[in-house]
Amino acid sequence: MVPISYYLVLSGILFACGVTGFLIKRNIISIFMSIELMLNGVNLSFVAFAAQWQALRGQVFVFFVMVVAAAEAAVGLAIIIAIYRTRETLNVDRVDLLKL
Amino acid sequence: MLHLILFVIFGGFCVAGAVNLLVQRHPINSALSLVVVMGSLAVEYLLLGAEFVAAVQVIVYAGAIMVLFVFVIMLLNAGEEERTKGSRVALLFGIPGMLAGSVLIGWVLLERAGTRAVPAGALPGAPRVIGWLLFHDFLLPFEVTSILVLIAVMGAVVLASHPGQKHGKKEG
Q1: Does B23 contact chain A (CB < 8 Å)?
Q2: Looking at chain A, which runs of residues are DSSP E strands?
Q3: How far apart are CA B44 and CA B166, in angstroms?
Q4: Considering the domain boundaries, does residue A100 fall inside one?
């Protein structure tokens, strides 16, 4: 028997690590991976609450989150490739202009 | 008891992978530690009884999305992160912010959440039931996500295609 709050604390820690990575990383790919980490933390809390209330809809929602994350990863990485092609850098501090 | 032991082991893997993602400077190391996080999260889902989510986690996240990440890292030949002034300021404020945030979240969840303990495999749903839910109650959202994925695929192809490969330029 493990309390649901332990799972929620784990998901909170993962989310906090994701937020920190988003703040302290300077490589745009690492920032993107931190966003994935945050999404994973939220997914864990969805499944934990689904177990708490014996509701399967939580798992269905996790499925939708994963689909959106996959779409986001595909488009985001394509944008990263496009940025790298025009700027020759992955450092977000050096990508500070919208125009070329 | 076994449930708690497995939870602690794989939760420890999760947190260690997440911290390693933050510490490593090279993106490929961060990507591989993210794979560890996702794999151990799949075990946590299995402990909660969510077999479907665990399988999708391994296939979609640890499989498809991470392969995409590793591909892009290798394609762009991403090197080590360089330290700048902005990154030092971010470190200065980010680490204490994360510690304060996680302690606050942990305290609230442990003391005030009012959640109960569940045995291993607490969720009753077999993947068949989830499939039934997806194709009956959530049919419209499901179809909308399929359109979203289609648009994302087209957007990725358009964004990542070389600007010099358009038809007009090819002939000229």
Answers
A1: no
A2: 2-3
A3: 48
A4: no
* Closest in B4, B68, B125 to A77, CB measured: B68
Q: Which domain holds residue A24?
A: 4-94
Q: What is the ipTM of this complex?
A: 0.90
The answer to pTM > 0.80 is: yes
- Cα separation, A11 vs A5, in Å, equals 10
Burial (CB count <10 Å: 0-12, 13-18, 19+), residue B157 = exposed
Residues of A whose CB is below 8 A from B156:
74-75, 77-78
Distance to chain A for B172, nearest Cα, Å: 22
Which CATH code fits B1-80+118-123? 1.20.120.1200
User: A17 and B76: CB-CB below 8 Å?
Assistant: no
Which residue from A minimizes the CA distance to B148?
A71
**Domain count of the fold of chain A:** 1
Q: What is the pLDDT of residues A65-96, one digit of tens each?
A: 999 999 999 999 999 988 888 888 888 877 77
Which CATH number is A27's domain given?
A: 1.10.287.3510
